[in-house]
């Protein structure tokens, strides 16, 4: 039995997980983003009925494996905090923490659409773009705790020679990213970014669901937008496949709810990878809002395999 919490900037989703992936005693509480004492207190209260039972956390942020410090942009009270150690002292239990996209990938590998695959790269197409890499049931942990962030790093690169007076923004959707760089996939591939891309491509302002719906109806302007979207996204994802060798890519997040979009991404990706795989590589995730909790619960297996800091 593992206590698990999926912590975002708005709510804490809490449950008790059994080894077979069954969740019970599920409840939610608002996330106290600005008050560390309240943040710790809520988690302590949620865990209180199960003294000594380990707590595993999926969080919208990153824990530095060298220092234990958690960086979560939407939860400023955690800045400079070794959260796992603090919670362990306050609650008298083992506490493990991982990024929520990593937990998503781990859950889909253990219980979901990627079950049976040893090399899994899970992607989130939500408000932004995220991901996690799992090999043999273990999250691949990178520099500073960061792995799977395929949405960042300038991918949309301008040509080496730009004619004088040429407005690059008119021909290349190269936008400033929240990470501080310009040209990241995250600037055009998440839901809000797709809306920006649609306007850039000549469309009227519309939300992402309306754009996808129009595209499925073969609307000319939406199709133009999605040609850009699928071209850039599938190229980036093909690079991920070529580098990692993953054999399946579960897709979560709001945009991942579109079966038509996931099918289109899969077809576009398989045209661009080195090994021309006839089977489906990019698949809709199946665990929905349970993925963060179930992935967090699986962290015990990860740490049993030597991932402890």
Class by alpha and beta content: alpha/beta
Biggest beta sheet summary: 5 strands, mixed
In which range does the helix fraction lie? 25-40%
Number of strands: 12
Number of helices: 10
> Please, what is the oligomeric state?
single chain
CATH architecture of the largest domain: 2-Layer Sandwich
The helix-strand sequence is EEEHEEEHEHEEEHHHHEHEHH
The CATH homology group name of the largest domain? ATPase, nucleotide binding domain
Radius of gyration: 20 Å
Q: Which runs of at least 5 residues are low in confidence (pLDDT < 50)? A: 301-309
Q: Which range does the strand content fall in?
A: 15-25%
- Give the overall silhouette: globular
Instruction: Report the span from N to C terminus.
Output: 23 Å
What's the pLDDT, averaged over the residues?
Answer: 92
How many domains make up the coordinates?
2
Family: Belongs to the ROK (NagC/XylR) family.
Protein name: ROK family protein
Pfam families: ROK
Write the layout of secondary structure elements.
Elements: E1 2-7, E2 11-17, E3 23-30, H1 36-47, E4 55-59, E5 62-63, E6 70-71, H2 83-91, E7 95-99, H3 100-110, E8 119-125, E9 129-135, E10 138-139, H4 186-189, H5 191-200, H6 208-216, H7 220-244, E11 249-252, H8 259-272, E12 282-284, H9 291-297, H10 299-307
Parallel strand pairs: 1-4, 4-7, 8-11, 11-12
Antiparallel strand pairs: 1-2, 2-3, 5-6, 8-9, 9-10
Helix pairs in contact: 1-2, 3-9, 5-7, 6-7, 7-8
Can you tag this structure with a few keywords?
2 domains; 309 residues; alpha/beta; Nucleotidyltransferase, domain 5; five-stranded mixed sheet; single chain; disordered C terminus
């Amino acid at each position: 039995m593992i206590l698990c919490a999926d912590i975002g900037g708005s709510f804490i989703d809490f449950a008790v997980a059994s080894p077979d992936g069954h969740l019970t005693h599920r409840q939610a509480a608002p996330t106290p983003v600005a008050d560390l004492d309240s943040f710790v207190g809520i988690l302590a209260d949620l865990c209180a009925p199960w003294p000594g039972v380990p707590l595993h956390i999926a969080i919208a942020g990153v824990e530095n494996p060298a220092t234990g410090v958690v960086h979560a942009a939407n939860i400023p009270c955690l800045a400079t905090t070794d959260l796992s150690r603090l919670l362990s002292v306050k609650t008298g239990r083992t506490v493990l923490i991982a990024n929520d996209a990593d937990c998503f990938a781990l859950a889909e590998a253990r219980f979901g659409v990627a079950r049976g695959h040893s090399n899994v790269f899970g992607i989130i197409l939500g408000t932004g773009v995220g991901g996690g890499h799992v090999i043999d049931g273990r999250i691949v942990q990178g520099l500073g705790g960061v792995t799977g962030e395929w949405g960042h790093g300038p991918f949309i690169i301008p040509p080496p020679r730009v004619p004088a007076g040429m407005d690059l923004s008119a021909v290349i959707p190269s936008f400033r990213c929240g990470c501080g760089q310009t040209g990241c996939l995250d600037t055009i591939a998440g839901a809000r970014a797709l809306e920006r891309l649609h306007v850039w491509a000549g469309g009227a302002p519309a939300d992402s669901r309306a754009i996808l719906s129009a595209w499925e109806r073969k609307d000319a302007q939406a199709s133009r937008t999605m040609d850009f979207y699928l071209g850039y996204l599938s190229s980036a994802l093909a690079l991920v496949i070529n580098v990692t060798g993953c054999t399946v890519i579960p897709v979560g997040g709001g945009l991942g709810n579109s079966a038509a979009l996931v099918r289109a991404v899969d077809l576009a990706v398989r045209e661009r990878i080195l090994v021309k795989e006839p089977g489906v590589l990019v698949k809709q995730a199946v665990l929905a809002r349970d993925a963060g909790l179930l992935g967090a619960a699986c962290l015990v297996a990860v740490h049993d395999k030597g991932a402890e800091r």
